[in-house]
Amino acid sequence: MSQLIVRAGEFTFQARFEEQLAPKTVAAFRKAMPFESQAIHVRWSGEGVWMPLGDLDFGVSYENHTSYPAPGQIILYPGGISETEILLAYGGVHFASKMGQLAGNHFITLTSGLENLTTFGKTVLWQGAQKIRFEEV
User: Fold this and answer.
1) Which ranges of the chain would DSSP assign to H, the alpha helix?
2) Which residues contact 131 (CB under 8 A, 6 or more apart)?
3) The CATH number of the domain where 54 resides is what?
4) How many domains does the chain have?
5) Would the pTM count as exceeding 0.85?
6) Are the beta carbons of 112 and 6 closer than 8 angstroms?
7) pLDDT in tens, 3-54
8) One Pfam annotation, family name (predicted)?
């Protein structure tokens, strides 16, 4: 099983790909690694941060999709009704956009550092965008 490091702001989290549940999403994301972006706080979804990716096309459709990711779960919305995005839940999330409820593919789960997840989310909320990097180890 592949291990990931997610560097988010001043925090480092270990994570795993959900290869059995979202194999196409994992394969597509792996091609883009190391993946770097900026995490900003969600507007409509609750306690989460997101990486807006515009019209970036990972070439995947729905698999293992949810509108309610749990804290530490990372989902990829492949685009369509709204822009492509990645969302990391740090608390209660009901995934949505200005167009309404959305569902994203749960493809990464954080496995360590969860005690810092809420602090990271609140840092993004109160201090603004934070760099985020996904790398496989």
Assistant:
1) 23-31, 117-127
2) 7, 8, 9, 36, 37, 38, 39
3) 2.40.100.20
4) 1
5) yes
6) no
7) 899 999 999 999 999 999 999 999 999 999 999 999 999 988 999 999 999 9
8) DUF3830
First to last CA, the chain: 11
- In the prediction, which pLDDT does 48 show? 98
Q: What is the pLDDT of residue 125?
A: 97
For the chain, the DSSP string reads --EEEEEETTEEEEEEE-TTT-HHHHHHHHHT-SEEEEEEE-SSSEEEEEEE-TT---S---SSEESSPPTTEEEEE--SSS--EEEEEEEEE--EETTEE--EEEEEEEEE-GGGHHHHHHHHHHH--EEEEEEE-
Residue 65, helix vs strand vs coil: strand
Read off the pLDDT of residues 65-101 as tens digits, 9 standing for 90 and up.
999 999 999 999 999 999 999 999 999 999 999 889 9
φ and ψ at residue 31, rounded to 5 degrees: -65, -25
